[in-house]
Design a protein that fits this description.
Layout (H helix, E strand, L loop, with lengths): L15 E6 L5 E6 L5 E6 L2 E2 L2 E2 L1 H11 L3 E7 L9 H20 L4 E4 L1 H8 L15 H29 L12 H30 L2
Helix pairs in contact: 3-5, 4-5
């Protein structure tokens, strides 16, 4: 798999936040705390049908001294997931957490509902099944939910470009996994650094 990169894998020597959308169609992105720009993005590294943990470890290891936080999206059941697929995703998210922990990198887990609401994305609005729905009703609901989720992924890409004009210089299109990784990091920065930025600005104005 060819990674999609903005900047070098070994990033500039300043503190940054890394966001991770852990799915196989997910992504990894880093945002500088110096200028709030995206310095790196990659589709989730995959080899065949498996996650490329060697590549993920390289990204973390090469930059461990300058990572302020790794933000991993909390995984959970999503309508069409099977028990096997969700178990595999949970295992993968756990491996990512363990890799970061072993390198002494600070880690946090952020629920999709939290970062999407905090960053300004509309709720997906997917419909849940009921105990009384027929097999045909289930198929209709799943088709409708697939359309809703596709539109939501498009919203993520649009917002990532809106918040980060530097991305428009890319030679390839931003994937929804990369976009959501960016927005996860954006949410953490907004949540934990926004108030400090406001205090610093007020302090500067009063001098």
């Amino acid at each position: 798999m060819k990674n999609r990169i903005v900047g070098d894998v070994k990033m500039r020597r300043n503190k940054y936040v890394i966001g991770i959308d852990p799915g196989k169609r997910g992504g990894i992105a880093a945002i500088s705390l110096e200028d709030r720009k995206v310095v790196f993005t990659s589709k989730m590294p995959i080899v065949g049908e498996d996650y490329d943990y060697e590549k993920i470890d390289q990204i973390m290891s090469d930059n461990k001294d300058n990572i302020a936080m790794i933000c991993i999206e909390k995984v959970g059941y999503m309508g069409r997931d099977t028990a096997s697929s969700i178990a595999s995703l949970c295992y993968h998210a756990g491996v990512l957490y363990g890799m970061a922990y072993s390198l002494n990198i600070p880690i946090t887990v952020i629920a999709p509902s939290a970062w999407k609401k905090g960053i300004g994305l509309p709720a997906i609005g997917a419909k849940r099944g009921t105990k009384t729905e027929t097999e045909e009703e289930k198929k209709i609901r799943q088709r409708e939910n697939a359309k809703i989720k596709k539109k939501a992924k498009g919203n993520s890409i649009s917002l990532a470009y809106e918040l980060h004009p530097e991305l428009r210089g890319r030679t390839d299109a931003l994937t929804d996994g990369e976009a959501e990784a960016i927005l996860i990091a954006d949410y953490y920065i907004k949540l934990w650094y926004g108030e400090n930025d406001e205090k610093r600005n007020r302090s500067t104005k009063n001098k």
